[in-house]
Write a structure and sequence with these properties.
Belongs to the LysR transcriptional regulatory family. One of its GO terms (cellular component) is protein-DNA complex. InterPro entries: LysR_HTH_N (IPR000847), LysR_subst-bd (IPR005119), WH-like_DNA-bd_sf (IPR036388), WH_DNA-bd_sf (IPR036390). It holds the Pfam family LysR_substrate. The protein is of the alpha/beta class. It has two domains: 4-84, Orthogonal Bundle (Arc Repressor Mutant, subunit A); 90-310, D-Maltodextrin-Binding Protein, domain 2. It is built from ten helices and eleven strands. It has helices spanning 4-16, 19-26, 30-44, 60-86, 100-105, 107-117, 132-138, 204-215, 229-237, 282-302; strands at residues 49-52, 55-58, 92-98, 121-127, 144-149, 161-175, 195-198, 221-225, 243-246, 258-261, 267-275. Helix 8 links the parallel strand 7 and strand 8. Helix 2 (19-26) crosses helix 3. It is globular, with a radius of gyration of 23 Å.
């Protein structure tokens, strides 16, 4: 019988390409990972990897076994989920990872709702910058992650993950309330010379933002680069920059910037992701439902007649 932990090491090697990365993810030493791969090759009587430069890649036989490893591990995840569901209880520990706008807006009320519904369920939350969360989910560091997709920027590295749409989130330009960059008629091409605050182009948001502006005929001047959406807003509020922001931020606070629609009215897709096979776990079902309920309630409040216009 082949060793499932060793098959998982092979699968992680296919995802990451180096012993050092696999060792870091699985909390082993590189030499221990190498020994486990050698033992797996002894079990199968075939070479499963070959060296390419400083990394390793799977042989044809290694790819075959890794494909089966995905199926086996997903099946075990499903078995654990069904066992937990059979107990009829929601408890234990759930570790989630999310980006800043979700952490600011959705997570606090979700935690409150879950504490009311399932007091035995413990939630741990980590803020992340992409692509950390995908690797953390697949390596069992997290149980559920929040992901975001921008137009033309699908989530990367999502093999082995079940994604579920949480909501669609419109994106707008954020301008200062006064000053040279406050005219809403300037969006978007009229802001070609404005100072922008954006995320780095290595992020999905940064790539999308740059592509959007290039479609409008200009490459933005970006003196401020940060993943901190609160810093983006502060720079806009104080008149030092303009930005692109999601409507999600305004579901729980009043805008202090001028919000203007963008060409084509783009939206990002907010998703929840779990490992293949684990979606039926009662704690994950409860967590996803609470996120949906909170999102719907916040949208309802924001769209009520008493709510300030966005």
């Amino acid at each position: 019988m082949l060793s499932v932990p060793r098959m998982r090491i092979l699968l992680e090697l296919r995802r990451h390409g180096t012993l050092a990365e696999v060792a870091y993810i699985l909390n082993y030493t590189p030499s221990a990972i190498s020994q486990q791969l050698s033992a797996l090759e002894a079990e199968t009587h075939v070479a499963l990897t070959e060296r390419v430069g400083r990394g390793l890649r799977l042989t044809r036989q290694g790819e075959i076994l890794a494909n089966h490893a995905e199926i086996v591990i997903a099946q075990l995840e499903q078995a654990e989920a069904e066992l937990a569901a059979s107990l009829g209880e929601v408890g234990g520990r759930m570790r989630i990872a999310c980006f800043q706008s979700v952490l600011l807006t959705l997570v606090p009320e979700t935690l409150t709702l879950l504490a009311q519904r399932f007091p035995e369920l413990q939630i741990e939350v980590t803020q992340y910058d992409e692509p950390d969360a995908v690797g953390g989910l697949l390596s069992h560091e997290y149980d559920l992650i929040l992901g975001e997709e921008y137009p033309g920027q699908p989530i990367r590295g999502s093999a082995g993950i079940e994604w579920d749409l949480l909501t669609l989130d419109p994106l707008r330009a954020a301008l200062p309330m006064s000053g040279p960059w406050s005219d809403p008629r300037a969006v978007l091409a009229g802001l070609a010379s404005a100072p922008w605050v954006l995320e780095n182009e290595s992020s999905a948001f940064g790539r999308w933002a740059i592509a959007l502006m290039q479609e409008q005929g200009f490459t933005p001047h970006v003196p401020f680069v940060s993943t901190d959406i609160l810093l983006h807003l502060h720079l806009v509020e104080t008149g030092h920059a303009v930005a692109l922001v999601p409507d999600l931020l305004w579901l729980s606070q009043t805008p202090r910037v001028r919000l203007v629609p963008l060409p084509g009215n783009p939206q990002r897709r907010l998703l929840t992701g779990v490992r293949d096979g684990s979606g039926g776990h009662p704690a994950i079902v409860a967590l996803r439902q609470a996120l949906r309920d909170v999102t719907d309630e916040l949208h309802h409040r924001a769209n009520s007649p008493a709510a300030p216009p966005v």
